[in-house]
Design a protein that fits this description.
This protein has 231 residues and is an alpha/beta fold. It contains nine helices and nine strands.
Length: 231
């Protein structure tokens, strides 16, 4: 067994797989389970009380995390004129119009997020087959189709996380790095939870935040007590 395997076994022994931990306790436990040499990502899986097959029970949105994601976000902006200048001043990786769209169509995808002004979306939509499967298509609900390009760029760079419920009714999201420590990890999770609660579909009945699992890239999952999420 390699060193990583030994560390995983040691971490596994610290986690009670049958227990549902209060959120605060889970964050403290997680922050002490470093396995890899790199700074592991911290991820959550939240099971919502919704039926994703129903069009009125789709949950999709974004949240600006107070402590960011712990990594550099490369933001691309499709805009013209003053809005292009605004995006450049805000620190976008690259800004352009038709020429940049053609560059992406040719297979260039060296960016993490794409913002577009509404007047450019008819042309950007032609990239659907390229951007869609990668989750890069700009969307008004996520704040990435907007004339407020400077605001969009700064929010994405500071740590705006996008989320969408999958076919099983689960939201998966990265909310930071293990090096953040328990308090910052908990702060980021609370902001994500608040965003999910605000987007609760009126037709969703029963328990909305059903369950949650917290984990690092290499570590075991820690089950969270849903009552601590409600609080």
């Amino acid at each position: 067994m390699g060193q990583a395997g030994k560390k995983y076994r040691a971490a596994l022994e610290k986690v009670d797989r049958e227990k549902r931990y209060p959120l605060e306790e889970a964050c403290v436990l997680l922050s002490g389970l470093k396995i890899a040499k790199f700074d592991e990502s911290v991820d959550v899986s939240i099971n919502l009380g919704v039926d994703p097959k129903q069009s009125d029970q789709q949950v999709r949105g974004a949240a600006v995390l107070p402590h960011g994601l712990g990594k550099t976000i490369r933001v691309l902006v499709i805009a013209k004129g003053d809005k292009a200048d605004e995006a450049k001043a805000a620190g976008a990786l690259e800004v352009g119009d038709e020429a940049l769209i053609e560059k992406i169509a040719g297979g260039w995808l060296e960016f993490d997020k794409l913002v577009a002004t509404p007047d450019m979306m008819a042309k950007v939509s032609k990239l659907g087959k390229i951007l869609g499967p990668r989750g890069l298509m700009p969307n008004p609900k996520l704040g990435t189709v907007t004339f407020e390009v400077a605001k969009a760029v700064k929010e994405l760079q500071s740590g705006k996380v996008e989320f969408r419920v999958d076919k099983a009714g689960i939201v998966h999201a990265s909310i930071g790095r293990l090096s953040f420590g328990a308090e910052k990890i908990q702060d980021n999770i609370k902001v994500l939870i608040d965003a999910l609660v605000r987007l609760k579909p009126p037709t969703s009945k029963g328990i909305y935040l059903k369950s949650m699992v917290l984990s690092s890239t290499m570590g075991p999952g820690i089950r969270i007590d849903s009552q601590s999420l409600q609080a």
